[in-house]
Amino acid sequence: MSKQEEKIKSVIVKVENLTKNFGKRCALDNVSIEVLQGRVLGLVGENGAGKTTLINHILGAYSAEQGEVRVFGLNPVMYPKEVLSRIGYLSETRDMPRWMRIEQFLEYMSAFYPKWDMEYAYRLLEQFELDPKRKIRALSRGELARTGLLVAMAHRPELLLLDEPSSGLDPVARIDILTAVVRSVAEEGRTVLFSSHLLDEVERVADDVCMIHQGRVVIKGELDEIRSQFHLYEVQRSGDEADFNLIPGVINVLRLGHGYQLLYEGDKERGKEQIQQKGGMIMNIRMPSLEDIFIAYVKHHKKEVVI
User: Fold this and answer.
1) Which domain holds residue 295?
2) Domain shared by 72 and 172, yes or no
């Protein structure tokens, strides 16, 4: 089997040229992404960027206006049973029947999934430190999130879709959830797509990243590869006022006291050379975080809109 054939076989979600409008507002603009088997894709963007709309297309809740969506090679709108039976989904709203006890909720949900594994569900209960006798209305936000994740995982789905899984949670609860996701992928080869505006958690667990801004994909690829394409230069000016914004490849300039922080996309040595030609003294060079890159891209695109 060729590498191309192996890649085609391993694509769990394939979205091509997807566009979605709500009235005059464009929620998704010609979006194309792939989610590969056994990997974790972090979908990042501001609130309202289009992350949840994209997830709803993958779930088959919306039909594509333009473009197409395939999950396990199938159109999720035309084949909802075949697709949804293989997906575990945790929504940001964590909608659950609040009058039920956790154990009742597990019994209720098990009826919808032929592959539900109750033994595994109770192991997750213990791992997440949840009391099966407690009513859902009495759970904290962290406990609600862990219960939702448990339900999403208990039928051992091939694909986990997590929409802001740790939104509003304290740091301990966030780590618990992320650890469970990573362990699930490592032990069972599950595929995960999760959306988040918390970029540090994406950086902690994601293999691949898709960055959406105002409904458009601005960056996508392997996380390590994306980060390696950018460099943060800490610079002091050696001469007269220099406009570092004019340097090709510089996408953000941040003033820090008497110095500057420049985010540059491209070859590190070429960036160094151009900065020095503009009268900059380079004090330090480091690899930026995903948050550095995201903030710079958002500012950069806003400048383009203003112009």
Assistant:
1) 229-306
2) yes
C-alpha–C-alpha distance, residues 293 and 242, integer Å: 23
Indicate the residue among 223, 244, 276 that finishes a domain: 223
Q: β-pairing, 259-265 with 66-71?
A: unpaired
Give the CATH number for residue 250.
Answer: 3.30.70
CB–CB of 217/210 below 8 Å?
yes
- Biggest CA–CA distance in the chain, Å, is 72
Quick check: 212 and 49 in contact, CB under 8 A? Answer: yes
Spell out the long-range contacts of 48-51 with Cβ–Cβ below 8 A and sequence spacing 24 or more: 49/212, 49/213, 49/214, 49/215, 50/20, 50/212, 50/214, 50/215, 51/163, 51/195, 51/212
Structural domain ending residue among the three candidates 192, 223, 254: 223
β-pairing verdict for 230-237 and 208-213: unpaired
In this structure, are 235 and 154 located in the same domain? no
- In the 8-state DSSP scheme, what is residue 94? -
The confidence score (pLDDT) of residue 306 equals 33
List C-alpha distances in Å: 2 to 70, 162, 237.
Answer: 22, 32, 52
Contact 301, 49 (CB under 8 A): no
* pLDDT digits 0-9 by tens, 109-150: 999 888 899 999 999 899 888 999 999 999 988 888 889 889
The closest alpha carbon to 136, from 87, 166, 99, belongs to 99
Per-residue pLDDT band for 237 (boundaries 50, 70, 90) equals: confident
Asked whether residue 86 falls in the same domain as residue 204, the answer is yes
Answer for the pair 82, 36: CB distance below 8 angstroms, yes or no.
no
For 49, which DSSP code? S
pTM: 0.85
* Mean pLDDT of all residues in 81-95: 86
pLDDT digits (tens, 9 = 90+) for 146-165: 898 899 989 999 999 998 88
pLDDT of residue 60: 94
- Total domains in the chain come to 2
